[in-house]
Amino acid sequence: MLNFERKGNGKETLVLLHGFMENLSIWSDMEPHLSDQFSLLKIDLPGHGQSDILAEVHTMELMADEVKKVLDHEKLSKVHLLGHSMGGYTSLAFAEKYPETLKSLTLFFSTYFADDDEKKKQRIKSYRIIKDAFTHYAKAGIPNLFNSNEKDILEGKIEIALATALSTNNMGALACVKGMVERTDKKHIVENLEVKILVLAGKHDNAVKTDMMIKHLPDRTNIKSYVLDCGHNGHWEKPGICAEIINTELLHNLPKKLVL
Asked: Which positions ≥6 away from 82 have C-beta within 8 Å?
């Protein structure tokens, strides 16, 4: 079973899925700002943190099934599910397979679009360097995931992100990259899922095509989106604002769209 941690005694369970080359520790800056109405379930996805590598290819569906096993083990039948980046892709796969389990779905600096051909080629080219020169791969990529306009302010956070990435098993990372190449477009999930869908995105996100994603969000009353003045890592760049939005949207209601 995947490694996980539970925290808090709130009546609403918020499941937190980290992104690629991350682990459940990434939520530490946001946690103090999240409402005590939430009980948090933080999970290490396969091949990350303290969770084992499960296959040569970690498809999003495989990872969604493993998340469901944790929920079943903890006897959780209805949860709020939030996924950052790759965790968002896993959350969409989960929503497709287990929609009856969800109270809400939050795409946290993630996207429902599949990789385009160029992105797939980039990922495939990265296989060898992830296998043979993982430290170089992480050091080259991690800083670019933060708002380039605030690199000096965010230096400490970038160092934490890099240390987290370097603690990841490189073969676990490789299995997930292979899975991300295979993932399919999930816009139909966003179009048809009946529960609340919350989208948090970064104005300076180099990993997600924020403008295109927000533009093509279905015009449905259950979908709300926020574009923040940050890069790909809102949990490190804007933890207080992100938590405030999550608290308000999942526990209350606000106007449909807001740019912060």
From this structure: 14, 15, 16, 17, 91, 105, 106, 108, 246
Structure tokens at 137: 């791969």
Q: Which of 161, 119, 115 is nearest to 138 (CA)?
A: 161
Sheet holding 79-84: strands in order across? 4-7, 38-43, 12-17, 79-84, 102-108, 196-202, 223-228, 257-259
Has residue 140 got a pLDDT over 90? yes
Q: Say whether pTM exceeds 0.85.
A: yes
pLDDT of residue 6: 98
pLDDT-derived band at 252, boundaries 50, 70, 90: confident
* Token pair belonging to 35: 């409402």
- The 3 state secondary structure assigned to 154-186 is CHHHHHHHHHHHHCCCHHHHHHHHHHHHHCCCC
SS3 at position 41: strand
